Amino acid sequence: MNAEYAIQVRNLTVSYGPKPALLDVSFMIQKGELVGIIGPNGAGKSTLMKAMLGFVRRDIGDVYVFGKPVEQTRGAIAYVPQRGTVDWDYPVTVEDVAMMGRYGHLKWWRNPSKADREIVDSALEMVRMSDFKKRQIGQLSGGQQQRVFMARALAQGAQILLLDEPFAGVDAATESAILDVLAEAKKAGITLVVVHHDLATASEYFDKLLLVKQRLYAAGPPSLVFRQELLSEVYEGKLKVFTDLLKG
Ligand SMILES: Nc1ncnc2c1ncn2[C@@H]1O[C@H](COP(=O)(O)OP(=O)(O)OP(=O)(O)O)[C@@H](O)[C@H]1O
Ligand SMILES: [Mg+2]
C-alpha cells in the first residue's frame, strides 16, 4: 500500500447486528489534508472513525495508515472521542490529563521529563487552556474539557488526529480555539479528520468532505459534495434547510 497516503480505507463493511453500519466504503486521505466527515445521526460516522483506529471489528475490508495495516500502526493516530462518553469524576487536573498524551513515550521507572512538560505546556497553550492547568477536569465546562482532550491528543505527537464532533455544543470561544488548533496542526503537516454536524460551516472549515450514510455517497472538495441531489438523498426530509444552504 502507498505510504504517501495518511489513510486508505478499502471496501470496508462493519456490522454490529444484521444491518451493516457501514457498507463497502472506500476512500483515501492524503498527508496533511483537513477532512470533514458529514452525514445524519446514525449514519456511521463514529463507526468509521473507530474503524480508522482499528477499534471495531471489520466484516470485510482493509484500513492502511501510512501504508501499513492499522493494527501495526497504533500510536500513529491520536483520537478525541465524541463527548458525553466519559464521566470525569476523578481527582485529576487539566495538566494530568494532557500528560496522559505522553504516557506512550514515558519510561515506567521515571517521571515526566522537562521535555514532556514543555510539550504538555505548549499543547495546553495551543488550545488556550494554560490558565486552567491546576483545575480538576470535572470542574470545567464541556467545551473546555474538549479542548483539554485535544491538548492530550496533541501532546501525543501523532501525525494523524481524529476528532469526533469537537464543535458539538460548544460556545463561540471554544469554537474559535478549536479552529485555531486545526489551522496550527495543519500548518505542522498533521493530517486531520473531523466528524462534523453543521453543514452550514462544513464547506468553510474543511478541504475535503466525506458524505456518509452507511455507504460513502461522495468524497471530495465541498463544491463537489454539496450537490442538491446528493444532500436530499442523504438527509431526506430536511431538504428545505439545505435548499436554503445551497442558495446561500
Ligand atoms: N456498539 C454498538 N453496538 C450496536 N450498534 C451500534 C454500536 N455503535 C453504533 N451502533 C449503531 O450503528 C449505527 C451507526 O452508529 P454511529 O455511532 O457510527 O453513527 P454516527 O453517524 O456517529 O451518529 P451520531 O451523529 O448520532 O453520532 C447506528 O445505527 C447505531 O445505532
Ligand atoms: Mg457519532
Instruction: Quickly give the CATH architecture of the largest domain.
Output: 3-Layer(aba) Sandwich
The rounded distance between the terminal residues' Cα atoms is 41 Å
So, the CATH homologous superfamily of the largest domain? P-loop containing nucleotide triphosphate hydrolases
Low-confidence stretches: none
Mean pLDDT: 89
| Cross-sheet strand order for the largest sheet | 6-7-8-3-9-10
CATH topology of the largest domain: Rossmann fold
SSE string: EEEHEEEHHHEHEHEEHHH
Radius of gyration in whole Å, from Cα?
A: 18 Å
Organism: Seleniivibrio woodruffii
Protein name: Manganese/iron transport system ATP-binding protein/manganese/zinc/iron transport system ATP-binding protein
GO molecular function, one term: ATP binding
Pfam families: ABC_tran (PF00005)
